[in-house]
Design a protein that fits this description.
- It is a single chain.
- The chain has helices spanning 12-21, 66-76, 89-113, 122-139, 153-162, 176-186, 189-197; strands at residues 2-5, 26-29, 54-56, 62-63.
- The protein is of the alpha+beta class and 202 residues long.
- The relative contact order is 0.15.
- The chain has a 4-stranded mixed beta sheet.
- Helices cover 47% and strands 6% of the residues.
- The chain is globular.
- The two termini are 25 Å apart.
- It has 2 domains: 2-81 and 190-197, 3-Layer(aba) Sandwich (Glutaredoxin); 89-188, Glutathione S-transferase Yfyf (Class Pi), Chain A, domain 2 (Up-down Bundle).
Length: 202
């Protein structure tokens, strides 16, 4: 398998899952600004959508949406318990989390990263994201991970997007359960391996 990624972007989530799953893989870095690979190759020629993550399977098939990619990877190694079994209520709870993170948190960061966003709109955008994060903070009051005691692909995704707060002036220091949660996730060897591979940790 080959994962196209950009350091620290949402592609960090499937990168973490690849390490958690202990799956053999190749990574290719993409510039999200120039949309080129390090060798100058036009990324649009590989993925017409131009964004990451983008996973190329060994048979040539492709996946280009993070929540789909991480579930696919988890299902390759069911013994790792990175996702509940298909057809179970727990699996639908996982999909709830992935959808919430994607539409309510990840998407909310978009205006804060976009240089075209008017400055007077950004406080409103920050407040909107913070409201969603405050709700997750409450959910983590008595949980080790989003789904309870078991790390899942949803945790890889939520850890990734909450890491962006520091870059957009979003103060989440008072969300103590999220802070403790992030420390637990960061302590995982697979998370550290993925971050080191992307140059995010020494």
């Amino acid at each position: 398998m080959k994962l196209y990624y950009s350091p620290g972007a949402c592609s960090l989530s499937p990168h973490i899952v690849l390490h958690e799953a202990d799956l053999q893989h190749e990574t290719v870095m993409v510039s999200t600004k120039s949309h080129k690979l390090q060798d100058g190759t036009d990324y649009y020629g590989i993925n017409p959508l131009g964004y990451v993550p983008f996973l190329v399977l060994d048979n040539g098939d492709t996946l280009h949406e993070g929540p789909a990619i991480v579930q696919y990877l988890a299902d390759l190694v069911p013994e790792k318990n990175l996702a509940p079994a298909n057809g179970t209520v727990a699996r639908y709870h996982l999909q709830e989390w992935l959808n919430f993170i994607s539409t309510e948190v990840h998407k909310g960061f978009g205006p804060l990263f976009n240089p075209a966003t008017p400055e007077d709109y950004k406080p409103m955008a920050r407040a909107s994201v913070l409201k969603r994060l405050a709700w997750v903070n409450e959910q983590l009051a008595n949980k080790t991970y989003l789904m309870g005691d078991q790390f899942t692909v949803a945790d890889a995704y939520f850890f990734t997007v909450t890491g962006w707060a520091q870059f957009v002036g979003l103060d989440i220091s008072e969300l103590q359960h999220i802070q403790a949660y992030r420390e637990r996730i960061l302590a995982r060897p697979a998370v550290q391996a993925a971050m080191k591979a992307e140059g995010l940790l020494k």
